[in-house]
């Protein structure tokens, strides 16, 4: 296939949550089938080939020629969540608000690790603030970038406890610099604001035995005041306990080979039911 920016962008639009949410709900996608017909030659989409194989070809092309953020996020879920850990013991959170930044990916298992992605299409202008924000709520932070950019980003984090992973053209992640656990930057305000209301209520009630009896408008500020009486490392552990409960509707289907590696991250985001996973599998196994 010949690389072109317009073709690459058009192809990348297949790998979006709304497109596959439609498949999960209806069992088909005119959008995907139209793309396959339009790019039949480029995608080697011979008649009788299952949609799954065409999706695999499209994703392989993006991995070689147009490594957008989705390719990185999907590699993290395949290589780290499903490869190194397990959906039974670890939880992956996508685009989590942490302070004034949005963490691309957070994995909670025995500890907490943020993965901040910088593709070849990105610039590092906001990187320092992002890394500082993440270290206020999580103890390990990794920067993930393409192998051709490792020296550039290594120079920006050499004096920080932040680690660096490089992505190869074959969807492998290599450790260039290991991350160090750092509890010194934990910030009670940021950790509490990372949690939803039911989660920070569980933290306060779990530690103090009851919730503050104050007006709605004062409730969070009073919970925050109480949280500041908790040692930050203990609060961090209690925060992780709550975040780990944000599990997918059907973890086993997400981890199974029924769903191809190419759309694992999409499935994590759209969180299909068992019936919707069946719709996805049937569509992907359909021959064009």
Structure annotation, total helices: 14
Order of helices and strands: HHHHHEEEHEHEEHHHHHHH
What share of residues is helical?
Answer: 40-55%
- Classified by CATH, the class of the largest domain is Alpha Beta
Summarize the biggest pleated sheet.
6 strands, mixed
CATH architecture term of the largest domain:
3-Layer(aba) Sandwich
Number of domains: 3
CATH topology type of the largest domain:
Trna Endonuclease, Chain: A, domain 1
> How would you sum up the global shape?
globular
β-strand amount: 5-15%
Protein structure class? alpha/beta
Strand order of the largest sheet: 1-2-3-4-5-6
Lay out the secondary structure.
Blueprint: H1 5-12, H2 17-26, H3 30-38, H4 51-65, H5 69-81, E1 91-98, E2 101-108, E3 112-118, H6 127-134, E4 140-146, H7 150-157, E5 163-167, E6 173-177, H8 188-194, H9 197-208, H10 216-227, H11 232-243, H12 251-255, H13 264-270, H14 274-285
Parallel strand pairs: 3-4, 4-5
Antiparallel strand pairs: 1-2, 2-3, 5-6
Helix pairs in contact: 2-13, 2-14, 9-10, 9-11
């Amino acid at each position: 296939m010949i690389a072109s920016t317009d073709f690459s962008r058009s192809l990348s639009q297949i790998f979006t949550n709304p497109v596959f949410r439609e498949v999960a709900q209806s069992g088909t996608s005119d959008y995907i089938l139209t793309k396959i017909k339009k790019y039949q030659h480029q995608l080697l989409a011979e008649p009788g080939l299952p949609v799954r194989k065409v999706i695999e070809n499209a994703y392989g092309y993006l991995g070689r020629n147009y490594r957008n953020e989705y390719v990185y996020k999907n590699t993290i879920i395949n290589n780290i969540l499903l490869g190194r850990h397990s959906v039974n013991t670890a939880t992956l959170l996508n685009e989590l608000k942490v302070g004034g930044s949005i963490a691309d990916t957070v994995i909670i298992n025995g500890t907490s690790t943020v993965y901040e992605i910088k593709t070849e299409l990105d610039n590092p202008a906001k990187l320092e603030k992002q890394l500082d924000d993440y270290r206020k709520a999580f103890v390990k932070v990794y920067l993930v970038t393409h192998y051709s950019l490792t020296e550039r980003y290594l120079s920006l984090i050499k004096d920080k406890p932040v680690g660096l992973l490089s992505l190869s053209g074959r969807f492998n992640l290599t450790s260039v610099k290991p991350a160090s656990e750092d509890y010194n930057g934990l910030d009670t305000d940021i950790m509490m604001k990372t949690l939803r209301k039911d989660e920070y209520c569980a933290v306060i009630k779990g530690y103090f035995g009851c919730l503050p009896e104050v007006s709605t408008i004062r409730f969070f500020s009073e919970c925050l005041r109480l949280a500041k009486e908790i040692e930050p490392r203990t609060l961090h552990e209690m925060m992780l306990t709550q975040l780990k409960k944000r599990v997918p509707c059907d973890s086993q289907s997400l981890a199974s080979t029924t769903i191809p590696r190419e759309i694992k991250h999409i499935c994590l985001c759209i969180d299909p039911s068992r019936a919707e996973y069946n719709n996805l599998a049937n569509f992907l196994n359909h021959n064009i």
